[in-house]
Each structure stands twice: as structure tokens, then as C-alpha cells.
């Protein structure tokens, strides 16, 4: 279980300081899928990076099971079983896909072919390829996700895994998250704006303006989103009909 308690993050950009996360408190349990969603710039990736230790926090605590990891660095957190698939993954010139997967797996026994299949890649085309500039954005993203799947993690964080992934592989990816959820005790945290990913969630966490807006079931969340749509259509209809919103009272 991962707990964030009153976490604050302040970052400096263009000579001024901005409060990016404000008193974030979350309890993320084992064997659950959490989807973090919300408006652009709300602080979702910053939450992921503060869990991984990429961004230091300015206040609060982060606890993994019974261990306070607030002052632990990225490597220590990775050793404790936290993994993060970046929104924009890095290329590793000189490193082959199979070497990256072996490095990620460590002492775990994993089937690289299966893992690549799970992210929609054909092993025989990719295992011996170097992770260099010849990789497309989508291929790179899938290799990154594969390296997370190769690790046996307590907490796996995926930042917009759908970005750059084609529809066919996206379908397999959602199945892979479901399989991961059924097979392992991992806490899965996915940052996403995609309805199909939201539907995987045990809980949807809405992050707005650096705070937790609400935590709901995906059914509840999607119902509210649908309501937003109908508001919008209603307004458009009113405008089209020339009533300027008078009839619907908005
Ligand atoms: N290093 C930084 N210095 C200053 N401000 C930053 C820094 N990194 C991020 N920010 C700001 O923090 C806010 C939150 O960024 P974050 O990337 O966490 O948002 P997000 O919710 O993941 O957005 P998106 O949905 O667009 O990916 C944004 O306003 C962003 O401009």
C-alpha cells in the first residue's frame, strides 16, 4: 500500500515559485487499479514523479507499506518496488530491447516474447533492436511499458500509456492491464484521459489545480462526464434555436 500524506510540491519556473501540489492525501491499496485524471496542468504527472522520487516534495510524507520513503531517492524507491513508465520515454542508444527487458526483470524469470506481445510488438522484430532514434514514439512507449511489466512491482505507475499507441495495440494494452491486475498484487496507477482506461479503474482520482477534486467509481465518474456533455449540447441546441439558453435556464 502506498500512502501520500499532505504532500506539497512547489516548483520554480521563470524565476517564480508555483505551488503545483497542495496537501495531496491519497491511500493507494494493493491489487487495485487507480486512474488519475483531470484537466491539463492539474498536477497528475507531478504526483507520479513525486511517488517515484523524481521530483522532491516540500512537505508531507510518502509511505510504502510500513516504510517512510519520503527521503529515499529514485534508485532506492525502484529497489523497493516502485516503477514509473514516463509520458515521454527516453531512448537508450547502444542498449538492445532484450537487454533492457533483462535489466528490468533482474532476478525475475520473465518471458520477453510474452511481454512484447502484451504491448503489441512482435518479439522477433524487436528483441535484437537497439533502442535508438530509429524507434517511433509509439514503439518507444510500448518498450517502456514492457520494461515495467517485466518487473515484479509493488506500485506500477503509467503516465498516459495510450499516448502514441495505435488502436490495435491499445486494445491489447487494456487487456494487459486487466491481466496484470488479476495476476499480481501490484498497485496500478494509470494517468489517463481515455474512457477505456477509466473503465478499468477501481477508483478514479480527479486531480484539479494541484488538489484531489474527488475520488469515485468509474461508473460515477463517467456519469458525471456524460452530464457535462449534455449541458454542452443543450447550450448548443439553445443557441442554434435562437433562444440563447433562455429555455434551458442556463
Ligand atoms: N519543472 C517545473 N517547473 C515549474 N513548473 C512546472 C514544472 N513541471 C511542471 N510544472 C507545472 O506544473 C503544473 C502541473 O504539471 P503536470 O505535468 O503535473 O500536469 P498534468 O496534470 O500531468 O498535465 P497534462 O494533463 O497536460 O499532462 C503545470 O502547470 C506545469 O506547467
Secondary structure tally: strands: 12
Beta-strand content? 25-35%
CATH class of the largest domain: Alpha Beta
Q: In the residues, how many domains can be counted?
A: 2
Helix fraction by DSSP (H/I, runs of at least 4) = 25-40%
CATH superfamily of the largest domain: P-loop containing nucleotide triphosphate hydrolases
Estimated structural class: alpha/beta
- What is the residue-averaged pLDDT? 87
Total number of helices:
9
Order of helices and strands: EEEHEEHEEHHHEHEHEHEEH
Q: Taking strands numbered 1, 2, ... along the chain, how are they ordered across the largest sheet?
A: 6-9-10-3-11-12
Please outline the major beta sheet: 6 strands, mixed
CATH topology of the largest domain: Rossmann fold
- The CATH architecture of the largest domain is 3-Layer(aba) Sandwich
Protein name: ATP-binding cassette domain-containing protein
Keywords: ATP-binding, Nucleotide-binding, Transport
GO molecular function: ATP binding; ATP hydrolysis activity
Organism: Sinanaerobacter chloroacetimidivorans
Amino acid at each position: 500500500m502506498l500512502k501520500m500524506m499532505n504532500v506539497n510540491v512547489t516548483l520554480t519556473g521563470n524565476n517564480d515559485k508555483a505551488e503545483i501540489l497542495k496537501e495531496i492525501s491519497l491511500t493507494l491499496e494493493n491489487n487495485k487499479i487507480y486512474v488519475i485524471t483531470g484537466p491539463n496542468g492539474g498536477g497528475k504527472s507531478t504526483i507520479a514523479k513525486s511517488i517515484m522520487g523524481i521530483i522532491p516534495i516540500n512537505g508531507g510524507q510518502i509511505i510504502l507499506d510500513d516504510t517512510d520513503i519520503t527521503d529515499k531517492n529514485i534508485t532506492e524507491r525502484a529497489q523497493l518496488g516502485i516503477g514509473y513508465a514516463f509520458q515521454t520515454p527516453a531512448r537508450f542508444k547502444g542498449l538492445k530491447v532484450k537487454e533492457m527487458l533483462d535489466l528490468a526483470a533482474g532476478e525475475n524469470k520473465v518471458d520477453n516474447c510474452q511481454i512484447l506481445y502484451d504491448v503489441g510488438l512482435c518479439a522477433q522484430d524487436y528483441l535484437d533492436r537497439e533502442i535508438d532514434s530509429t524507434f517511433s514514439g509509439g514503439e518507444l512507449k510500448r518498450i517502456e511499458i514492457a520494461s515495467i511489466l517485466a518487473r515484479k512491482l509493488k506500485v506500477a505507475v503509467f503516465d498516459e500509456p495510450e499516448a502514441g499507441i495505435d488502436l490495435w495495440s491499445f486494445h491489447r494494452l487494456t487487456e494487459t492491464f486487466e491481466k496484470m491486475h488479476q495476476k499480481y498484487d501490484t498497485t496500478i496507477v494509470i494517468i489517463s484521459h481515455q474512457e477505456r482506461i477509466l473503465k478499468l479503474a477501481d477508483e478514479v482520482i480527479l486531480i484539479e489545480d494541484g488538489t484531489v477534486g474527488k475520488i469515485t467509481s468509474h461508473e460515477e465518474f463517467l456519469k458525471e462526464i456524460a452530464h457535462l456533455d449534455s449541458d454542452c449540447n443543450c447550450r448548443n441546441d439553445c443557441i442554434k434555436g435562437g433562444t440563447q439558453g433562455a429555455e434551458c435556464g442556463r
